[in-house]
Design goal:
By secondary structure, the protein is mainly α. 76% of the residues lie in helices and 2% in strands. It has one domain.
């Protein structure tokens, strides 16, 4: 388990040390590092199937006194999601980041951000969760500003301010929990809170954590930073921010703390559903009017996170399954869409959809993979987004939330309309005279996009019995609620 943090930290250190002297060291170490992390995360599925829960005692200090790392179904699910996307983005970056100076600095920050995300996922200690959250956040602030143009610096500044406010809410919540329970171990906190519950304390902590992690997840009304930050960053980082960062720092941390540590209640679930539906509709309405390719995608990130939060907020087995399934699917198709936008900008030098047209004949791989991703995000069968959205809609109907089911369907129709606009103005129509010399992007960029497109096509298979352990064990962890503490201490014995 420690290797999920050690490998990216080690890679970041070596790249920063050797990158200036040996140009290719960043490409090699980043790709080897992310590939090894992907292999380890896939192996973690087997370990979870065998042992259910594994607990690693850092420094051989037994929890709750010492720090521990935890591997369970939800941890394994998130590790696979993060490290799969990270590997493909690292592959894409080999060619894409050539247009930036100091490429090795990009890889250093990229691996630091990955170390922070993996740390958040595997830690069983609340303060360490905050430390890893800050490592990932600070790296992402620097990466948004990586191009150092005025637009990027402004977006990074806004993102850093909002992110710091979010971190302050989270830290205050952790401090209050520590004062009340005298422990920072998440399983131990769950034990203490179950033995001496305090409804007033839970309500106050709910506000703090919902505000903090809601800002990190860019839920409406905490979303103001995202439409500037995501378009301004290099495409590789836009894909990381939207594909995995907002889910790990926002959604994962939020549901892990509320379901497994504080204990969930109906009022909080209702709040999650409401925020999910508002995000879903506001995001898609704001996206429809956009002509900047990457800004349009950024608003859709807000909308799609709404689907994830709505599903999990239902609190039913089917709802949580749909929410987590859509979290994985969104990581794949939204990363692909941002890589597509990066490919178009790489070849044309513009993100304005009105200046494009007819690119299908010059950039067939980018055009076809973008069509796959567009159909996936719109929920068109047989692509992966269709299955997760359908499960969420069925879960809403099963729970008697018919209004929310209708909102989910409307959101999907509007998403389809939005991406039909992208297809029409960017890839179909007549090719402009000034794009006659445009060529397809380099091979590694194409390879990353093709692999993501294939996962979009095959993603629906994850709900088949063959892959049940991957999604099912993650759902079981959340359904277990505060019984999480019993499984952790049981695994220590």
């Amino acid at each position: 388990m420690p290797f999920f943090v050690i490998i990216p930290l080690g890679a970041a250190f070596l790249v920063s040390l050797l990158g200036k002297k040996i140009k290719s060291v960043g490409d090699v170490l980043a790709n080897l590092g992310t590939l090894s992390l992907l292999i380890l995360s896939l192996y973690s599925i087997k370990l979870v199937n065998m042992y259910k829960v594994l607990v690693y005692e850092v420094g051989s200090w037994v929890p709750p006194i010492g720090i521990c790392l935890v591997l369970d179904g939800l941890t394994s699910f998130m590790l696979v999601t993060v490290n799969l996307v990270s590997f493909l983005i690292a592959l894409y970056s080999v060619n894409y980041m050539e247009k930036y100076t100091d490429k090795y600095r990009f890889y250093t920050l990229f691996m630091l951000m990955l170390a922070g995300m993996n740390g958040i996922i595997i830690t069983g200690d609340l303060f360490n969760l905050f430390v890893f959250l800050e490592i990932a956040s600070i790296s992402s602030y620097a990466l948004v500003a990586f191009g150092t143009e005025a637009e990027e610096l402004e977006a990074s500044f806004k993102y850093a301010i909002m992110g710091s406010v979010a971190s302050s809410f989270v830290l205050l919540g952790i401090a209050i929990l520590y004062a009340y329970t005298s422990t920072l171990n998440m399983a131990d906190i769950a034990n203490v809170l179950s033995s001496k519950p305090s409804p007033l304390l839970f309500s106050f902590l709910a506000v703090l954590f919902l505000s903090g992690f809601g800002l990190k997840a860019a839920l409406v009304p905490f979303h103001a930073w995202l439409p500037d930050a995501h378009p301004s960053a290099p495409a590789s980082i836009s894909a990381m921010l939207s594909g995995v960062l907002i889910k790990v720092l926002g959604v994962y941390a939020l549901v892990r703390i509320f379901f497994n540590v504080l204990g969930i209640n109906n009022f909080f679930l209702s709040m999650l559903m409401f925020l999910g539906v508002i995000s879903m509709l506001v995001g898609v309405f704001l996206a429809i009017g956009q002509w900047d390719f990457k800004r349009l995608l950024a608003y859709h990130s807000i909308s799609q996170i709404g689907y994830v939060v709505l599903g999990i907020g239902l609190g039913t087995p089917l709802g949580i399954l749909g929410g987590l399934f859509h979290l994985f699917n969104h990581s794949i198709f939204k990363s692909l869409l941002f890589l597509n936008s990066g490919a178009v900008e790489y070849s044309l030098g513009t993100r304005d959809l009105q200046k494009m047209g007819g690119l299908r004949e010059k950039m067939p791989i980018t055009a076809n993979t973008d069509l796959v991703a567009s159909m996936s995000i719109a929920g068109v069968p047989p692509f992966n987004g269709f299955f997760s959205k359908l499960i969420i809609i069925f879960a809403c109907i099963e729970a008697g939330r018919f209004g929310y089911a209708i909102c989910a369907i409307v959101g999907s129709i509007l998403t389809l309309a939005s991406f039909m606009k992208v297809q029409k103005y960017a890839f179909f129509g007549k090719l402009s005279q000034k794009w006659q010399q445009v060529k397809e992007v380099p091979v590694l960029m194409c390879l990353a996009m093709v692999v993501l497109a294939l996962i979009c096509l095959a993603g629906g298979l994850l709900i088949t019995p063959f892959f049940k352990s991957f999604l099912g064990s993650a759902v079981d962890v959340l359904l277990l609620g505060t019984g999480y503490s019993g499984t952790i201490f049981g695994a220590l014995k």
